[in-house]
From TrEMBL:
Name of the gene this protein is made from: SETD3
An individual GO BP term: methylation
EC number(s) given by UniProt: 2.1.1.85
Protein name from the UniProt record: protein-histidine N-methyltransferase
Record keyword Repeat present: no
Family to which this protein belongs: Belongs to the class V-like SAM-binding methyltransferase superfamily. SETD3 actin-histidine methyltransferase family.
Entry GO MF terms: protein-L-histidine N-tele-methyltransferase activity; protein-lysine N-methyltransferase activity
Reactions catalysed: L-histidyl-[protein] + S-adenosyl-L-methionine = N(tele)-methyl-L-histidyl-[protein] + S-adenosyl-L-homocysteine + H(+)
Region (Disordered): 1-23
Length: 244
């Protein structure tokens, strides 16, 4: 599809990633899993727990620096490939264009008058990444054995995306290359920014989301490194907290 060769895994870069072993990270993730599996702390202790969990996460992220799969250029560089791929596979690509709406981000803008109730946008199911397509992918054998993947479709989809993202020959690469690389949700906030939320009602949800995400990552890192059905997953050597 034109730019498939531009996917790369930064396995050699500077810093700890060049020499870190899976065993080192496995030890840290085991400690993280234990910390995140502890009962919810009492009133006034949530911040202390959050800082402890974040400290472990930052140690893991530092060791994994340079291991993530990345794409050269900006996401909008890949929009032409996306439209070509969509068109070749039966999606509608006429009557609108992709535009950056400044603060709102990228979206579609009509290039002609669209009548009320007119069908102008359709996407064949084969282009969608779904739990069903995950079960039929390289992730299938692990999915059949892991109860958390079977019970939580959102996590299955996350792994489906990460596996396909790590495969330069993936059918979905033209779509994956156009996805955002960062978001502005509290999960991505710096510690000082989270501290500023302590007096708000949102802080408990922020703590809970961060703890749950860290627990999930720690659990699945061990699964990816030790489960026999995970041996052939393309993300086995590049399953980073940052990507998850």
């Amino acid at each position: 599809m034109g730019k498939k060769s531009r996917v790369k895994t930064q396995k050699s870069g500077t810093g700890a990633a060049a020499s870190v072993s899976p065993k080192e990270t496995l030890n840290l993730t085991s400690e993280l899993l234990q910390k995140c599996s502890s009962p919810t702390p009492g009133p006034g202790k949530e911040w202390e727990e959050y800082v402890q969990i974040r400290s472990l996460v930052e140690k893991i992220r530092k060791k994994q620096k340079g291991l993530s799969v990345t794409f050269d250029g900006k996401r909008e560089d890949y929009f032409p490939d996306l439209m070509k791929w969509a068109s070749e596979n039966g999606a509608s690509v006429e009557g609108f264009e992709m535009v950056n709406f400044k603060e709102e981000g990228f979206g579609l803008r009509a290039t002609r008058d669209i009548k009320a109730e007119e069908l102008f946008l359709w996407v064949p199911r084969k282009l969608l990444m779904t739990v069903e397509s995950a079960k039929n992918s390289v992730l299938g054998p692990l999915y059949s054995q892991d109860r958390i993947l079977q019970a939580m479709g959102n996590i299955t989809l996350a792994f489906h995306l990460l596996c396909e993202r790590a495969d330069p020959n993936s059918f979905w690469q033209p779509y994956i290359q156009t996805l955002p690389s960062e978001y502005d949700t509290p999960l991505y906030f710096e510690e000082d920014e989270v501290r500023d939320l302590q007096s708000t009602q949102a802080i408990h949800d922020v703590f809970s989301q961060y703890k749950n995400t860290a627990r999930q990552y720690a659990y699945f890192y061990k699964v990816i490194q030790t489960h026999p059905h995970a041996n052939k997953l393309p993300l086995k050597d590049a399953f980073t907290y940052e990507d998850y």
